[in-house]
């Protein structure tokens, strides 16, 4: 695979999320052999879940959080409970949908290939944005996630989603391809999610077609980002866009 072809594919990653992909995460072993620890305390979960119901109308705002607290029977929201404000609301949606993914999708038989499973998992996760009614507000969430103080946590959650999808698709290997596979899937999912926020087609069919094109491109260039490029490819893509933003033609 040529570096030019790989870089062109990488540059399709949305500019608003490319920064999230520039930092190299630490490889972890994803396993359900150990019991999951509760991510949120009961009061947090109740308020945030209730607040999400107000997002379609009020957006990812403090108002939605306040209304969620009232619905849950709390008169006030302690700053200690949600120190990051609206980002805590965004992150709750990300975490809860990631953890619920394994319960929302079943594959028909063992002959269902890994590639088809990954495609279905991405579509199911995108469908969750529609079912919860937040898809029309998701650009607000992306803006909140892109704030400097929220980038590390946003990056970790995007990586965790990619890890979850590969695991549910049957890929549990932890080897030299760990980074490149997750980098590729993270970029494709991020691109499809942003495309979905502007999709006006019936049942988001254009988003599905967009996803299929990105997956086909990935398959064509070798199934994953080349190990010789890896995360450096994402860094090179960001540098190209930075130069372009400064008026440098390349």
UniProtKB/TrEMBL annotation:
An example Gene Ontology CC term for this record: mitochondrial inner membrane
Pathway(s): Cofactor biosynthesis; ubiquinone biosynthesis
UniProt keywords, alphabetically: Lipid-binding, Mitochondrion, Transit peptide, Ubiquinone, Ubiquinone biosynthesis
Subcellular location: Mitochondrion
GO terms, molecular function: lipid binding
Key word Transit peptide present: yes
Pfam family, one: COQ9
Domain COQ9 C-terminal residues, every copy: 151-221
Keyword Iron-sulfur attached: no
A GO biological process held by the record: ubiquinone biosynthetic process
Main location: mitochondrion
Family: Belongs to the COQ9 family.
NCBIfam families: diverge_rpsU (TIGR02396)
Function of the protein: Membrane-associated protein that warps the membrane surface to access and bind aromatic isoprenes with high specificity, including ubiquinone (CoQ) isoprene intermediates and presents them directly to Coq7, therefore facilitating the Coq7-mediated hydroxylase step. Participates in the biosynthesis of coenzyme Q, also named ubiquinone, an essential lipid-soluble electron transporter for aerobic cellular respiration.
Name of this protein: Ubiquinone biosynthesis protein
